[in-house]
Amino acid sequence: MLPIERQRQIRMLIQTKKTLKISELSEQFNVSEMTIYRDIKPLVEEGLISKTFGGISLVEKNEQNLSNQSQCVYCHKPNNPKMAYRLILPDDKVETACCAHCGLLRHRQLGEEVLQAICHDFFMNTTISAPLTWYVMDTTLNIACCQPQVLTFENREHAEKFVNGFGGEIYGLQDAKEVVYQKMQGPTGCCSKHN
Ligand SMILES: [Zn+2]
Ligand SMILES: [Zn+2]
Q1: pTM for the whole structure
Q2: What is the CATH number of domain 3-58?
Q3: What residues does each domain of the chain span?
Q4: Which residue among 123, 149, 172, 188 is buried most deeply as judged by most CB within 10 Å?
Q5: From ligand 2's centre to the CA of 103, what distance in Å?
Q6: Ion ligand 2 residues within 5 Å by Cβ
Q7: pLDDT one digit per residue (tens) for the chain, 195 residues
Q8: From ligand 1's centre to the CA of 160, what distance in Å?
Q9: Distance (Å) from CA 7 to ligand 2 centroid
């Protein structure tokens, strides 16, 4: 089978299944996982799908889909699609948080239930899978919607440059979830919702 044909089929599969495992695709098409990664590369660049740990998932671009998700699931502020942090749950359920701050807190609450989470690169506004994101906190620049603010970067180098300029700390997903939670327990937390 030609790569273009596999890509066509992967496109169809991801529309119906929303998430796919690389290992399953490799088995199904009887090619190596390396080949599958090559096949999906253009689809990732196109923004159709995003990479997850060991798999891919559909990026729902449909803004209508966002409009019934117009309120933050955590703090109930109106959502800004450019900063939104989205949680993909079983049975095609999607929750949208206004920013990474609320997204991380909600992600921590739901734990294992979250199949996948997506946020946006602060500079490029590209979609990033949450486990591959770098989270920057404690910067001197105040731009995000909720405090303590969390900015998200796809590229570690960009995050480092940002921190060089504006201060702050860089965290991976697991640490970021804990750090933002701990901060909310302190006297500076702005939010009344604790779990
Ligand atoms: Zn919120
Ligand atoms: Zn927010």
Answers
A1: 0.62
A2: 1.10.10
A3: 3-58, 63-185
A4: 149
A5: 8
A6: 98-99, 102, 145-146
A7: 899 999 999 999 998 999 999 999 999 999 999 999 999 999 988 888 999 999 999 987 654 444 456 889 999 898 888 889 999 999 888 999 999 999 999 999 999 999 999 999 998 889 999 999 999 999 988 876 899 999 999 999 999 999 999 999 999 999 999 999 999 987 654 554 444
A8: 25
A9: 36
